[in-house]
Design brief:
With 219 residues, the chain is an alpha/beta fold. The protein contains seven helices and ten strands. The chain has a single domain, classed as Rossmann fold, CATH 3.40.50.300. Helix content is 36%, strand content 27%. Helix 3 packs parallel to helix 5 (140-152), helix 4 packs across helix 5 and helix 5 (140-152) runs parallel beside helix 6.
């Protein structure tokens, strides 16, 4: 599903990713752990084609995302990727159903099927009946569940999650992690979770530590 080979990323003179290699198969859910500032978000951004790399190769279902122009990268994100961002990125003036349906609207899916699918995914994350609520009416844990619903609404082949429990108390964090894992598995997607938290990483099938030397497996 996803292959990273010798990925290097520099910001000016600072080398943030120093030869990162990784394989994630379809249906696998993999965690990358690392301290704050080590390059976890940067890694997800290069996988999503949001940032260019300085060396190496990133293949998603056989397509080298490092060689795509901006339009092709945006299309690939729309069609194949679900991104759970650290800061939710929900749009405050839209209802929950509109927020969750947005990836389908961007794909040109008609309104009826978009609404039906958004309602179904919101129900799957435990937010049935809240379709017409606005984000300001929700707790942090509920907002994170909206972010998970939006990442999965388009049945992405690969789900990228950036510190999905960063802003949550331990109980909500456990709930969100279990939900994220269940949803990734149920959709048959590959999952890549980055986090500073070993506890969060425990919800994944395999774990790696990111450092200045690249990725090392955690037993
Ligand atoms: N767009 C950017 N321009 C310059 N430096 C950046 C940029 N994005 C991230 N960095 C730097 O790269 C390093 C890794 O950042 P990041 O990937 O956000 O770390 P993490 O997610 O592990 O906390 C940090 O030192 C950060 O300041
Ligand atoms: Mg980060």
């Amino acid at each position: 599903m996803l292959t990273l080979a010798g990925v290097v990323k520099e910001f000016g003179a600072r080398r943030v990713l120093n030869g990162v290699s990784l394989e994630v198969a379809a249906g696998e859910y993999v965690a990358i752990v690392g301290e704050s500032g080590i390059g976890k978000s940067t890694l997800l951004n290069v996988v999503a084609g949001l940032e260019p790399v300085d060396a190496g190769r990133i293949e998603l279902e056989g397509v080298d995302v490092t060689r795509l122009d901006d339009d092709a990268a945006a299309r690939l994100r729309r069609e194949k990727l679900g991104f759970v961002f650290q800061a939710f990125h929900v749009l405050p003036h839209l209802t929950l159903a509109q927020n969750v349906g947005l990836p389908l609207v961007l794909r040109g899916v008609p309104r009826g099927p978009t609404e039906a699918r958004a309602h179904a995914v919101l129900a799957a994350v435990g937010l049935a009946g809240r379709e017409h609520s606005r984000p300001r009416e929700l707790s942090g844990g509920e907002l994170q569940r909206v972010a998970i619903a939006r990442a999965l609404v388009g049945e992405p082949r690969l789900v990228l999650a950036d510190e999905p429990t960063g802003n949550l108390d331990p109980e909500n964090a456990r709930h969100v992690l279990a939900l994220l894992r269940a949803q990734v598995k149920e959709h048959g997607a590959a999952g890549l979770l980055v986090t500073h938290s070993e506890a969060a990483a425990a919800s994944c099938d395999r774990r790696y530590r990111l450092s200045g030397e690249g990725l090392a497996p955690i037993r």
